[in-house]
Write a structure and sequence with these properties.
By secondary structure, the protein is mainly β. It has five helices and 14 strands. It is globular, with a radius of gyration of 21 Å.
């Protein structure tokens, strides 16, 4: 039960987390639609509240999103070799703070990444022992998730997809050098993490999202393109969002590309269980739950103090992910 191999994500999961966290080649904002006459920002309209309202109106109907996803990963391995991997899965979002992304091949799920209003988690189904890692949003900065290189929690995915509403006031605004884009900079959490959202001056669509590091430099950059209709159940109107999103980090050269299809609100397809850690642990027969908010393994003790709770899967989720779980890595939900 205390195998150190289980104390870190493995295989495809480790790759996904590394790319998501250290995840571009920064796009050239001055080179968009070079063959078309540019639509330039009118200085008289360069007001944060006006552009935030325009963005928010465009994403107001995207509170809930369901889509099939093809996930492509590109990264450099420990030996300096360029590597790539591809998987298929499903993206499910209930804003503001429920996200589920499962990735696998040939109908088999290998990895499940998600969050609810209190916690985030990832579940590794690739080994003989199925393992889950979980932590609370409020403790993310101090958690062991960052030691695994995961600098963006799953709850931030809605912002990187360009579908999160922005604060109506209090942000900063700027125009790009060529005048074709409008940049809106806001704080997205109580820690003061800054995000800049670039909107196309002509369409108002989000074309790029940047998350800044503590030095004020763009760290994670998402490029959005190929907008398509999102089907809304029982309504004649439709909304739109990007079908292709590239999330990357220039320093590492890592890149994750999401190609989304069958975009819809998922009213008839989405299950509450997709955002429930206890339900997922039960359904996936997860054997161990590690609490990322607890301290790391105590040297020479042979015990990982961040291991998950024992008992039923429901108890394991509520105990382990809240800091009250057992510290001996006993199995969850009776799994072997």
């Amino acid at each position: 039960m205390n195998n150190p191999r289980l104390l870190a994500p493995r295989g495809l999961l480790a790759i996904i987390l590394t790319v998501l966290a250290a995840a571009l080649a920064a796009c050239n904002r001055n080179g968009r639609d070079a063959d078309l006459p540019p639509v330039l920002v009118d200085p008289a309209t360069l007001r944060y509240d006006l552009w935030a309202a325009r963005h928010n109106a465009g994403v107001a109907e995207l509170r809930q999103v369901w889509a099939n996803a093809v996930v492509r990963l590109r990264w450099t391995d420990a030996d300096g070799r360029q590597r790539s991997e591809q998987g298929e899965g499903r993206l499910q979002i209930q804003q503001p703070d429920r996200v589920a992304l499962n990735i696998g091949k040939v109908g088999e799920t290998f990895v499940w990444i998600g969050c609810d209003p209190q916690r985030y988690w990832w579940i590794d189904l690739t080994g003989d022992q199925r393992v889950a890692f979980a932590g609370r949003h409020g403790l993310y900065q101090q958690s062991r998730a960052r030691s695994y290189g995961v600098v963006v929690p799953p709850v931030e995915l809605t912002g990187l997809l360009g579908i999160r509403e922005l604060p109506q006031s209090g942000g900063a605004i700027q125009a790009s050098n060529d005048g074709r884009l409008v940049g809106l900079t806001t704080s997205i959490d109580r820690r003061g993490t800054r995000q800049r959202t670039w909107l196309d001056a002509a369409s108002g669509r989000c074309v790029q999202v940047e998350l800044f590091n503590p030095r004020g430099e763009p760290d994670i950059v998402a490029s959005l393109e190929d907008y398509d209709t999102v089907a809304l159940t029982g309504r004649g109107e439709t909304a739109q969002m990007a079908k292709r999103v590239r999330i990357a980090h220039a320093a590492s050269g890592s890149l994750i590309t999401l190609d989304l299809s069958d975009l819809q609100d998922g009213v008839r397809r989405m299950s509450p269980d997709a955002f429930s850690l206890p339900a997922l642990l039960n359904q996936m027969n997860v054997g161990l739950l590690y609490d990322l908010d607890l301290p790391a393994r105590v040297p020479n003790s042979g015990v990982d103090s961040g291991a998950g709770a024992s008992g039923g899967a429901s108890g394991g989720a509520s105990g382990g992910a809240s800091g009250g779980g057992a510290a001996d890595g006993r199995s969850v939900g009776g799994a072997p």
